[in-house]
Every structure is written in C-alpha cells, then in structure tokens.
Write a structure and sequence with these properties.
This protein is of the alpha+beta class and 176 residues long. The chain has a single domain (22-171), classed as Peptide deformylase (Peptide Deformylase). It has helices spanning 36-50, 141-154, and strands at 57-59, 69-72, 87-97, 100-107, 110-120, 122-128, 134-140, 169-171. A five-stranded antiparallel β-sheet has the order 1-2-3-6-7. Strands 4-5-8 form a three-stranded antiparallel β-sheet.
C-alpha cells in the first residue's frame, strides 16, 4: 500500500490522456510481477496525481499506459469520511461491492464534464503493492467510489459509460 515515491530517475509529470484516446477504451493488460518497469510506472502515477489539483486517483491508462495499475488517495478530501492514505495497487480486482448510491463525479480524462453515477457505497479490493505483497482493502463512501472509478479505467470505461443518459451529465463548475 505504501505510496512513497519509488527510487527512480526523475521523470516529468505525465500528461493526462483525454477522452477519445483509444487507450481509455481498451482493457489494460496485467502487470504481473513488480519489477523496474512497474516501479517507474508507479513513480509516474504518483507524480502526476500529486501535481494535479483535487486529484484523488489515477489509473495507468490515464497517462497513456495500458497496464493494470492505480493509485488512490482521498486523504483530506471534504467528501472522504475515511481514508487508507495513499494506496498504489498493481493488478487490482474487486472482491466485494455493497449497495449502489448515485453521486456526482468527475475525471481528469473528461475535464469539462461531471456525471451522476451509481457506485457501491462499500467495496473490498485486492492487488499487489510496490513491494510485491498482496493487499486487501475495505473502503467505504467516497474512497470506495474512487477505487471503482479507477478500476473502470482499467476495464476501458470512463464515468460517462455509467451514466443513465444525457440528463445525468453536467458541465463542470469552475471554482476561482
């Protein structure tokens, strides 16, 4: 689960891929063992997420890499009731999902829109951390939503694929 930046050569923050790029609609490939390539990917995910204001999660396809890796950190977010800190997982999978609740969400890959999406209020996810250890995480509320959002990216989906129709899509508000 550790989200300390892996020791890797300094890389620039990656550009976030926008909707329409084929990598966002293609299921990602498994990572398998955690090696040097995965450590570099982890560093890029962490650096890009941390450099992006209000970002609470990022999936490898969002930085143009078709691999199954995510990072989630809802710490300090006003909607987060609980948080596990910064969680980085390779080959994550959903083990359990609770009852759905509709709520508004946005995405860095869909910068101008938000949408009303039904997602489970509680989840159990599992994956492999940077040290190669299997982690199992039970999350609730906003954190559960963030995990499900990032897992969707690994399956080639964006939140717009989950809305009930045009009435559930909204222009993103700009706060100054």
């Amino acid at each position: 689960m550790c989200c300390e930046r892996p020791v890797a050569p300094a890389m620039p923050v990656r550009e976030v891929v926008k909707i329409g790029d084929p990598v966002l609609s293609t299921p990602a490939s498994p990572c398998g063992c955690v090696g040097e390539a995965e450590r570099l990917l982890a560093a890029d995910l962490l650096d890009t997420m941390r450099a992006s204001p209000a970002c609470v999660g990022l999936a490898a396809p969002q930085i143009g890499v078709g691999r199954r890796a995510i990072v989630v950190d809802v710490t300090g977010h006003r909607k987060a009731g609980s948080a596990h800190g910064c969680v980085l997982l390779f080959d994550p999978e959903l083990l359990e999902a609770g009852q759905p609740l509709v709520a508004r969400e946005g995405c860095m890959s869909v910068p101008d829109l938000t949408g009303d999406v039904a997602r489970a209020e509680s989840v159990v996810v599992a994956g492999v951390d940077l040290g190669g250890n299997r982690q199992v995480i039970a999350a609730e509320g906003f954190e559960a939503r963030a995990f499900l959002h990032e897992l969707d990216h690994l399956d080639g989906l964006v939140f717009l694929d989950r809305v009930d129709g045009p009435h559930a899509v909204h222009q993103r508000k700009v706060y100054r």
